[in-house]
Amino acid sequence: MNNNQDHISDEFATRLKSFISKRVSNPQDAEDILQEVYCKIYRNINGLNDTGKLHAWIFQIARNAVHDHYRTNRREEPFAEPPEPEAVRADENDNKEIAGCLKVIINHLPDKDREAIELTEYKGLTQKELGQLLGLSHSGAKSRVQRAQQRLKEMLCECCSLELDRRGNVIDYKLKAKANPFCDLK
């Protein structure tokens, strides 16, 4: 199996690192998990009976390692109390502030768009369920949600410029000079 070990290192190093980095925000944690995955691969490679399933086996090890990382680093009460505004600033993440602004912007959307956003994003309906509820085809409901999301994005971009990190979190925003009736940020 030594040949397989060399093959694993060369072929999968970049793909494994990318796979893990997309699922873990902290680059140091991603590196630690990658090293842990390599250790598990080398420890258990001799137990792999079907080398045709090597890819699936390796990525299952990586998935499990990511899950283990989140399981061991879970906070005890993640939804106990909302963080203080200073704590949000300390994390360099403005998601909560922008989320508050989104609620105001949603109220300024046309009725059909507002209904689509509220039912799918806040009430948890799938697009298929939305279509059934509103008497639309699945593709019609999907289009309505996408159109509403696009309008919401456009209205938000009229209000401010956003800077996002690689995971889509708002790390900074700047208000635009143009005042909007739906912009609640200061």
UniProtKB/TrEMBL annotation:
InterPro entries: RNA_pol_sigma-70-like, RNA_pol_sigma-70_dom, RNA_pol_sigma-Z, RNA_pol_sigma70_r2, RNA_pol_sigma70_r4_t2, RNA_pol_sigma_r2, RNA_pol_sigma_r3/r4-like, WH-like_DNA-bd_sf. Signal peptide: none annotated. Keywords: Sigma factor, Transcription, Transcription regulation. CDD domains: Sigma70_r4. It comes from the Bacteria. It holds the Pfam family Sigma70_r4_2. Residues 12-75 form the RNA polymerase sigma-70 region domain. SUPFAM superfamilies: Sigma2 domain of RNA polymerase sigma factors, Sigma3 and sigma4 domains of RNA polymerase sigma factors. Residues 101-151 form the RNA polymerase sigma factor 70 region 4 type domain. Belongs to the sigma-70 factor family. ECF subfamily. NCBIfam families: PRK09637.1, sigma70-ECF, SigZ. This is RNA polymerase sigma factor SigZ. It comes from Sporomusa silvacetica DSM 10669.
